[in-house]
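Notes, Module 5: Reading structure tokens.

Key idea: the token line is not a picture. It is a compressed description, and you learn to read it the same way you learned to read a sequence, by spotting repeated patterns. We will look at two proteins. The first is printed below with its tokens.
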Amino acid sequence: MIEVNSKPTNYQAAKSMIEIGEEVTSAHVIDRLIQTGRREVPSRRQLSALMKKDTDFVIVRRNGSKGPLIFKRRA
């Protein structure tokens, strides 16, 4: 059998750019993806929703009722 190495999904690429213990917002992650030359980038809302569901991320704080969520990667 031949193994085909596929390109990581948008979320996997975004997750790999965040170091353990680092605090980021979804906008920061999208900026990094664009700077590294990623052509397909998820929306801020989509990325934030995926990070909320992922057990590797913890919501550190909400900036009031408005403003971006701040996520911290734990593992």
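Here is the second protein, with the sequence above and the tokens below, as before.
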Amino acid sequence: MKQHDSIIAIGLTVFSGLVSFLFVFYAVNILSAENASEYAKVFAYVSAGYGLGNVYILSAAWRGSSWTLWANKLIAFCFFGVFLMHMVQTGVENNLEYLRALGMAGVLWLNWFAVKKISRRTALPVQPPARKRR
């Protein structure tokens, strides 16, 4: 891997780690509020689960696990579905709130891209099979 690819992978990892922290921070704030609705608390649990799951997937990708891309896609699609349901439940007041959904999709895609870059960075190089000598 080239040096600029390594820098991009590290930058994406830091971004993904910060985003995961923000998901967990958001969840803790909602869960510690006294007047939060039950639906908001469920969304907070899902947000915390995504944040913590993403950190675990990032660390597994650094170790070279092969299942990380699939797992990241799974939790990202599940979280985005719950995010859209939460958006519908709370009501969309104007069309600018759809930009919030696009922004969340972008953040989830960047998290997936970070895992992809890390997985590619830690993957073992593929060796061509040895040719038999006659």
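Summary for the second protein:
- The helical segments are 3-32, 38-63, 68-90, 97-122.
- The chain has a mean pLDDT of 85.
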